[in-house]
Amino acid sequence: MSSPRILIVDDEADLRELLEITLVKMGLDIDSAPTLAVARDYLTKTEYALVLTDMRLPDGLGIELVHEVTAQYKNTPIAVITAFGSADNAVVALKAGAFDYLSKPVGLEQLRVMVRSALRITQGDNSDKSSQKAVASTALRLMGQSEAMQDLRAQIARLSRSMAPVAISGESGSGKELAARDIHAQSARNDKPFVAVNCGAIPEALMEAEFFGYRKGAFTGAVDDRDGFFQAANGGTLLLDEVADLPFAMQVKLLRAIQERRVRKVGATVEEPVDVRIISATHQNLHECVGKGTFRQDLYYRLNVIELSLPPLRERLDDIGLLSEVILARLGGGQKTALTPAALDALRSYSFPGNVRELENILERALAFANDGVIEVTDLALKAAPSIKIFAPSPPAEETKMVPALIETEEMILPPLADDLPQSLPDHLDDVEREIIRRALAKTRFNRTQAAELLGISFRQLRYRMQRLDINAPE
Question: Which of 408, 413, 406 is nearest to 450 (CA)?
Fold first, then answer.
């Protein structure tokens, strides 16, 4: 079996020779071209595992070759060599479809890492179909057969072949981390770590140490050397979730780490190289954050090389049946539970402001109420508004008759809503429900059976709600 062949395109003879010697030592075959014309001639005659081109050539620009290779030789990854400090050129090349980039002066270890990644991609393309199916089956975390999801999975398959940074946007609960894991699982890095970091959950004072690690004695409490997120993800993928929450000072340090592909631990005097693919995610509009001055524009362009937008659940309601089936199978622990046709229709007519995460919460709650493994519409509890309406300050007479014990005195009537909307509707509804249940329990001296009858729900439903809302019997 012949060795993989690499095409080097560069007009600097010394650099070509250095690259050739390095790659030959890796057991690779090499062709070298000083111009675009020679490179094009080589491409018509030979199939390459990787094309590595300089951005400035005597007869044109390397970006031209990037466009040609990505269009005509789809199974051949192409990487570019950019001049020192030409970060913009690298971003342009990645957006055009380049697999990766190197900055001058070329670091030989970085070159070797990049070539190995490219070879894993081309060898994966030449592997048998059964192994490809096996890899794909492990990566399908985003479920659904709607047109929107099929398009999304096709985009993920294309993105997995590149090392370019990806910015995932989408509403909360739409599956941004799952998309990132799918990209990693289908990439040549799938045997390396995937590290997910919630940028909004790290105290600002600890952020640099958490991202880049620290040396023993760097600060009080640093009793040992410790790696950061970048070192932990070395060779693999680092997901920066809720990246818009990064403080401005940390954005500067992150930008340098991404551009230089080197990090310095807190307390260290030298930088160390890291090989990490960056995927960022946020429910905020990063472009608007740049306009407001809360997010650096240069970091935005670095992270947003390729954008992947996730559709909200309300735009793919056809997937609710499949999603519900998968979620119930996981939550049921081997016990089969099914939705009635009416319950499924009710879910499909719901707007799901919390997306798939909200669907999972609804089904988990419904599972506790379901009888004989069947979930009815009432078990879903999709409409919370009627329970508030019953306890409005001036209830209609017929509603007063429904729950006379709960509206006997003035102090037991819930106050009207303020002009300002609640910051979190689910939390507000939980507070309302918690107060009503506590009043019913107080009226029945904590007899849960009588309180359930008073509220018009089953004892099992009351017990579940008490557990969820953390309502305990008085000591």
Answer: 406
Whole-angstrom distance, CA of residue 351 vs CA of residue 85: 48
User: Does residue 261 come out as left (phi exceeding 0), alpha (psi in the -120 to 50 range) or beta?
Assistant: left
Three-state SS string over 255-320 comes to HHHHHHCEECCECCCCCEECCCEEEEEECCCHHHHHHHCCCCHHHHHHHCCEEEECCCHHHCHHHH
Residue pLDDT tens, the chain, 475 long: 678 999 999 999 999 999 999 999 999 999 999 999 999 999 999 999 999 999 999 999 999 999 999 999 988 999 999 886 667 788 888 888 899 888 888 888 889 988 988 888 777 655 444 444 434 444 457 888 999 999 999 999 889 888 889 999 999 999 999 999 999 999 888 889 999 999 989 999 899 999 999 988 888 887 888 999 999 999 999 999 999 999 999 999 999 999 888 999 999 999 998 999 999 999 999 999 999 999 999 999 999 999 999 999 999 999 999 999 999 988 887 788 899 999 999 999 998 999 999 999 999 989 888 888 899 998 898 854 333 333 334 444 444 344 333 333 334 444 455 556 777 777 788 888 888 998 888 888 888 888 888 888 877 778 878 888 888 877 6
Is the separation of the CB atoms in 99 and 162 below 8 Å?
yes
Paired with 100 in beta bridges are 79
Report the predicted TM-score, pTM, of the whole model to 2 decimal places: 0.72
What are the φ/ψ torsions at residue 455 (nearest 5 degrees)? -90, -5
